Amino acid sequence: MKNLQKTMRAILVDQPGGLEQMRISKIPRQEPKPHELVVQVKATSLNRADILQREGHYPPPAGESEIMGLDVAGVVVFKGRWMDNLSGQDVFIERLLRSLK
Questions:
Q1: What's the rounded Cα separation, in Å, for the pair 72 and 46?
Q2: Burial 39-60 (b: 16+ CB within 10 A, else e)
Q3: In terms of CB atoms within 10 Å, which of 1, 49, 53, 96 comes out highest?
Q4: pLDDT of the chain along its 101 residues, tens only?
Q5: pTM for the whole structure
Q6: Domain chopping of the chain, boundaries
Q7: Whether 41 contacts 74, CB under 8 Å
């Protein structure tokens, strides 16, 4: 994974509230686990669950990521060793399962 950037951009919420609480920040990219992928995101959106989370009505499960934007489309740039069924540059469109940390 030596060619991957050490940081990534993420939508974070400082405290529950309106749009003014959201910010795009650069955060450290964590090493993926054997069952995870690294996706170069080309597009994302905020869905209803994200908005409810921003408002403080839908906290992420304990121990899971608080990064907003569950719906993403992009290209797989790295795959964990258990992800052999994907080729290195597969297009990826998915609703993330809050497993990104």
A1: 10
A2: beeeebebeebbeebbeeeeee
A3: 53
A4: 557 788 999 999 989 999 999 999 999 988 888 888 888 888 888 888 889 999 999 888 777 778 888 788 888 888 887 777 665 555 555 555 444 43
A5: 0.71
A6: 7-95
A7: yes
